[in-house]
## 1
Amino acid sequence: MPPAHPFDFDYARDDDCGDTLHEECGVFGVVGVTDAANFVALGLHALQHRGQEAGGIVCHHPDHGFNSARRFGYVRDNFTKQSLMETLPGPLAIGHVRYSTAGSKGQTAIRDVQPFFGEFSMGGAAIAHNGNITNADALRKELIERGSIFQSSSDSECIIHLMARSLQRTIPERMEDALRRVEGAFSVVAMTRTKLIGVRDPLGVRPLVLGKIGDGYALSSETCALDIIGAEFVREIEPGEMIVITDKGEIESTQPFRPRPSRFCIFEHVYFSRPDSIIGGRSVYETRRQIGVELARETPVEADLVCPVPDSGTPAAIGYSQESGIPYAMGIIRNQYMGRTFIEPTEQIRNMGVRLKLNVNRALIRDKRVILVDDSVVRGTTSRKIKEMILDAGAKEVHFRIASPPTAWPCFYGVDTPQREKLLAATMSEEEMREHLGVDSLKFISLDGLYRAVGEAEGRKADCPQYCDACFSGEYPVEPADMIEKGFVMKAAE
Ligand code: SF4
């Protein structure tokens, strides 16, 4: 059956059979510029890799009040239209790009598209949330029992309802109140009529940065989105920090939560963030190259070529090549225009799967022993197909080198991962995975090697890990209460 709607069939998701981890959201906000929504649209465009399903913008103008637009699909296909952008006036705006986690996964309803808006006695407020609330089911149940009427299936809407129930006087105070009830990961960008607000959860799992543009300020999931609007990077919002920026450019920073050691998502370094972003003062590209260096030291193999699985494996492959001395080559070429291209696909086109996105550079590969560097192995379906393509092209040997440790546990903090039993590393040893993929060798970077690559010279501190690495270690920094309630079994303490 062809899809009824052009966006019903998502090739980006379908062609890898759920074999890629997806960051769920990107958030962006600007205050103190003319036509802030245009800046937000640009920022969201730069954050599109964090969510392609839908996007939304809310803005405020002193004369026209709050306005909003929510659309399915890419930012560039919607928020570039003059007729739409003219409806979003004002010097203050926030936006969100979404790839659903909680809520109606894969079949987002427009009501699930953020930012969410609430009207309070002291004025309106809109919020955009990146992350995942691990006690959302319990909160939603409690709120509904007490009379809240939810508009969406998104866990993020709980924050608006908790704010509505708060007895605090101001919106930032109500937001503090609400977020103290929330467990899990959140980077929130919010706005009132006159203020732009940014908050990170106490562990700082998801990123949020502050930038300066003219007399105004911007908040963004990543620095690459500050670059696109010409904003200067000021600093990261600290874990557990709330920052309130007025339309006069005054900034107030508070720490409303009980302080805890930070646990930033280590996978942001490996895969989610754009390579041109800066995290913790380090270039993501350089960190990924360093992961390749560590990988080459830990898992050497004799071969003729080092090839990345594009695009996310590229910097690690460069690092592997530099460290090993084995030549780097673009053995697989990615079709940059792949996306939701075919509106009514035939069954034959659907079955082409990964070939729609990637093609082997045959002339280069023939008769070579090839090291393929990829960012992760999730279900292994894509890796198997890539291996087949490489062997079809005449490669003599295929060696997989993976720039992250085996992904054996699901993420509950805002990344779309299959159920645990669907993760290859949850059910197989490394040797079993190698056999399953049918490659000559398969090696992953160690957890310590990954920590060294992100700048922790001594590796991972077992008693107090410096990052969230739950998808590799099974050690969850925040207990996923809703999932445990649904039967998820945590790793037994060692
Ligand atoms: S579980 Fe993995 S993907 Fe999720 S926040 Fe932790 S490190 Fe990141």
Note: Residues 205, 265-267, 411, 413, 415, 468-471 surround iron/sulfur cluster (CB under 6 Å).
## 2
Amino acid sequence: MSGTRIRPGWADAPTEVDVLVVGLGITGAGCALDAVSRGLSVLAVDAHDLAFGTSRWSSKLVHGGLRYLANGQVGVAHESAVERGILMEVTAPHLTHALPMLLPLDDAIGRRQAALLRAGIGAGDLLRVAARTSSETLPRPRRISATESHRLAPALGASIRGGILSWDGQLEDDARLVTTVARTAAGLGADLRTRVRVLQLDGAGAVLRDELTGETREVRARAVVNAAGVWAGELVDDVELRPSRGTHLVLRADAVPGLAVALTLPVPGVRNRFLNVVPQQEGLVYVGLTDVPLDGATPDVPEPSEDEIAFLLGTTSAALAHPLAREDVVGAYAGLRPLLRADGHTSDLSRRHAVLTSSTGAVTVVGGKLTTYRRMAQDALDVALRAAGIDARTCTTARLPLAGAAPRAELARLAADSPSPRLVRRYGTDAGLVLAAARGASGLDDGELLAPVADGVPVTLAELIFGVTHEGAHDVGDLLDRRTRIGLVAGDRSRAVPAAHRAFTLAEATVR
Ligand SMILES: Cc1cc2nc3c(=O)[nH]c(=O)nc-3n(C[C@H](O)[C@H](O)[C@H](O)COP(=O)(O)OP(=O)(O)OC[C@H]3O[C@@H](n4cnc5c(N)ncnc54)[C@H](O)[C@@H]3O)c2cc1C
């Protein structure tokens, strides 16, 4: 296969490596990148696909840690703000941007509470300063008038007396971040395999099953990192996770007309709990988030409940001049937060990460955030390499730009000159590579490669072909649900299926 070391199945994979990583969500992809960039040989596997688990079901924000500060977790808050700055200014400016967030002040928020909220948001800005993130990257918060609030969010109800405008980071897309981290690791020589499940592991290796052939094999590794997210406890005896579900709604932008900022809306009757209504780049709005303990076994793909959908609709509607209707919901998705059970009590690991060494020597890394994946990987590899006595370079990922990264000014110039600003937004300086790969594989002209793949779906055929030739996509689901996010709206997905099949047909000669 040309152009990629991300492949489905086992064929030709190494049976002895320095580091074996289990799971290719953001944590596992980050661990693979960390290990390979220290000069080690790496095999990283996922039972399904890149970003198959929680990593594609997030709010797609790059958090500055304000929420942790509110809970008194100053260290975690600072770490989050530092990692946000690294992502936005060094490693992934192409995949992140500043998101204006408006907290509207209405009758439900008294003046005293408003003052407290404003002080909290001010403290969040101090975190930015402490993390040395420029105010050009994330502007300072400010109090705004009712008129300006309505200009930024015309759908808000009439009763607001003003708002607090602040800024946080937003991802282009969470699964795109995972794919980019994975492609960066593969570019440095890591061997990444999808459809390879770990059946058993210890500190010296694992038994793997190729999910395409059913064949099982053993791999020996000097260090083993278990980054299997909410499924991590199935692979080691001494880690028990009790997930809780968080659900988002997907709306068309015209359901909340004119929305130029994200809205932060208090949940009535619950202190310090807010929903976010977040506009996306191309015509969608996400509304989240719920928190519902999961009963029973951990599903591969969690489903939102009608109760959660009704709660999100009702709470959002209370802040708007015209309530949302059930028909406004064109999609909904749910992700699972890892809650760790240790020593008989549970603690919320979604706020911080943990690196746990099992008696077998395997190292498990769980919890944390998309935002903090780099630091999680650094901590996990530091522990795993020390325990295995592996002498490797120290971690350099804080200074290692992801594939396609460049300073914002350069990206803006590139987008202005590009036949497809969309490709620059999603692949940065690799936009030209995406188009060249698609041309080379298909022989089609740019007009056809850069046209939307279906009515109202801005994704291009070039992206789908590149997903096959360079990003290890194996089936239609990989292309529509992870390399792109067309699948978040079921109606769009069914209209795009023929384009995904076409991409496989066109790319076939290249990947064989
Ligand atoms: C609803 C929700 C919203 C969130 N929003 C944000 C946000 O806006 N910003 C932010 O920074 N963070 C956010 N987070 C947190 C963030 O999404 C998670 O911390 C992160 O995605 C976890 O990634 P992971 O790689 O550890 O797990 P996962 O993404 O779940 O990856 C684990 C992988 O392991 C694989 N796997 C499992 N078992 C095996 C096996 N036996 N063999 C091989 N592979 C296996 C799975 O297929 C999966 O791909 C949110 C979390 C939730 C739940």
Note: The first strand starts at residue 6 and ends at 8.
